[in-house]
């Protein structure tokens, strides 16, 4: 990355620092996108993809560049530079930078990347200023909801699933699926039997191991290995006073959010509850 001698957003004209209109629009976008909830990385990726130049023909942005711009007070008129954004917007961005770790980020971290739009199935993004989830694909905006309330709603659903494992079942399209390990053992046994010199003990061990796995699989009825794992996690889980992050990650694939903020849980076996 080339070094800049004039801060991004400005240019020298008649010996004075003046606003570069095109770059100033990018600075404004960065501040407004950040205060709307986008991360440094998301903003950088958008600017790079859209071909926004950072230095002459160089349109390579990264989260460090974005962070430096957001932290630079010259953009609200400090140090003799003309203001590109208001002091209020700069202060709002600064407040988010300093507080988000101890406010919403810690609460949302376990499930933030798993939030899915009920309308189109795409990922949802959190907007801290309005306390809403939004979809960039279809434009859906959820009703406002505190992060803590969303986390509690997820916990309540997890406990409901854990206490009623009978509602967990293997989706029809996955019935009678063999486990990957059984299939792998079949291949290894077949390969070993084709060798000129047989290792009888090793082959017997593999056959016995395969029989054990197949027995466990058949004993579970129509349950596939993933469904079995989910049921086992429910059986072993012990309720806690905090968000059950380990239990959540072991059984949940997506959190499907509807406009009215009620949720469906998509399990790792593909079942939606």
From TrEMBL:
InterPro entries: DNA_bind_recomb_sf, DNA_bind_recombinase_dom, SSR_resolvase. It comes from the Bacteria. GO terms for molecular function: DNA binding; DNA strand exchange activity. Residues 7-103 form the Recombinase domain. Pfam families: Recombinase. PANTHER family: DNA-INVERTASE FROM LAMBDOID PROPHAGE, SITE-SPECIFIC INTEGRASE_RESOLVASE-RELATED. This is Recombinase family protein.
